[in-house]
Request: fold
Amino acid sequence: MITDKARFIHQYYGQRILRVNFNKLAHVGQGGWNLNHPDFYIEVTPLSKITNEDAIAVAKIFHPEWENPTITYNDETTTTVTNGRTSYGDIVDIYADGEIFPEESNKYASYFFLKAYDYLRSKGYLIPWREYTCEQILDNNWARLK
Reply:
């Protein structure tokens, strides 16, 4: 039976982040590991530790026209990327809990969010999945933070 845990972990396919014992990391989707095993989990990076490069890449998904975005870390819960101006629509906030908020109404299309979440997942960041918050994913022991 494929459980929600296995489905969640499979989103990180190909990344070497699956902890299968205390000393070994394996690639998700390789090696025939039972992802439902209670001791297996993935090691992911929290969005509170997003790199400047990745934050800019996410902002450019919503604003590909931006040439020189600026990073502002407000605190450990929010990363703000701006286009060098402070007018409405020139800000993308990335929250540690996995929410992304571009301040421009026409940028709310599902396509932009799916692309942003896929990008973050491909880089090994923990993001919410289906009805599960990041906190619930950690509480379920499906993932642990690096």
Q: What stands out?
A: The mean pLDDT is 88. The chain has four helices and eight strands. Residues 4-45+126-145 form one domain.
